[in-house]
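stage 2 :: seqdesign
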């Protein structure tokens, strides 16, 4: 592991490579103050000048499409000033103008045993402090309301999710800088990763649509720590707080600190929902 001296040496080498001074000097213009002039900061870029390869974006996507991946839905809670959300199957409060949608029911097979209770979620603690929502919101454009869905919880289908660190427990996902959902998640400062099962393709497609009320008719409950929507029937979920956000070309790299997680063994029996070359599929052993 690189120590402080090694990191300092790496910084010095980088500053020299970009032509920035590595020590402070006192120019003649400093006058009587004797203060050292602040060296100019080098321009930091996610992509260097001339580094872009001459690739056709369509060809780039076609080649990378050969990489099969799982699919998730990233969700975040509604702003605190909003009225409490109405979950599927619950009666609507009298103050709401429109009634809640009728619950969707699926007849159970005869003499089917009652499902076993879900295991208690695992809560995790980490000494590293996540980004405060106020700081994150200050650097994030305000979202523009686009209907009732804009005032409720936020969510979008995400293919680019991965685990990042075991100690401390961190996960990451990538989101386009043009996303209209990300500013709402950023302002919440928390999110829940819902890992989709093989039978949840329709749910994934609903959250891949922009501008609609994605939670209409979707059953969900609050995640135990952040309150982010935990979608019903997902094989696994991960409750997180935003730890860091980095730039990566036309995307943002979001790092989340895991605060709680859990699985539904019964839902996991169907296997994961996979995405490969523009089509959904499932895993067969």
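stage 2 :: out
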């Amino acid at each position: 592991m690189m120590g402080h001296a090694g990191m300092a040496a790496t910084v010095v080498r980088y500053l020299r490579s970009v032509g920035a001074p590595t020590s402070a000097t006192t120019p003649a213009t400093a006058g009587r103050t004797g203060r050292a002039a602040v060296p100019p900061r080098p321009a930091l870029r996610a992509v260097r000048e001339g580094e872009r390869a001459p690739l056709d974006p369509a060809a780039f996507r076609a080649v990378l499409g050969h990489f099969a991946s799982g699919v998730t839905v990233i969700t975040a809670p509604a702003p605190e000033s909003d009225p409490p959300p109405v979950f599927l199957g619950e009666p609507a409060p009298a103050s709401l103008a429109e009634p809640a949608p009728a619950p969707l029911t699926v007849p159970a097979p005869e003499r089917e045993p009652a499902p076993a209770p879900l295991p208690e979620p695992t809560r995790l603690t980490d000494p590293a402090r996540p980004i405060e929502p106020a700081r994150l919101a200050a650097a994030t454009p305000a979202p523009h309301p686009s209907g009732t869905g804009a005032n409720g919880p936020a969510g979008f289908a995400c293919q680019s999710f991965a685990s990042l660190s075991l100690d401390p427990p961190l996960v990451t996902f990538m989101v386009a800088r043009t996303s209209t959902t990300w500013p709402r998640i950023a302002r919440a400062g928390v999110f829940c990763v819902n890992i989709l099962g093989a039978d949840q393709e329709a749910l994934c497609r609903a959250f891949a649509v922009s501008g609609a009320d994605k939670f209409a008719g979707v059953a969900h409950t609050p995640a135990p720590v952040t309150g982010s929507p935990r979608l019903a029937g997902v094989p696994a979920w991960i409750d997180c707080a935003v730890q860091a956000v980095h730039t990566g070309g036309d995307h943002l790299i979001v790092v989340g600190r895991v605060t709680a997680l859990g699985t539904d063994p019964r839902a996991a029996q169907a296997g994961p929902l996979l995405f490969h070359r523009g089509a959904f599929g499932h895993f067969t052993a």
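stage 3 :: structure notes
- The first helix runs from residue 4 to 17.
- Confidence is low (pLDDT under 50) at residues 24-30, 82-116, 125-148.
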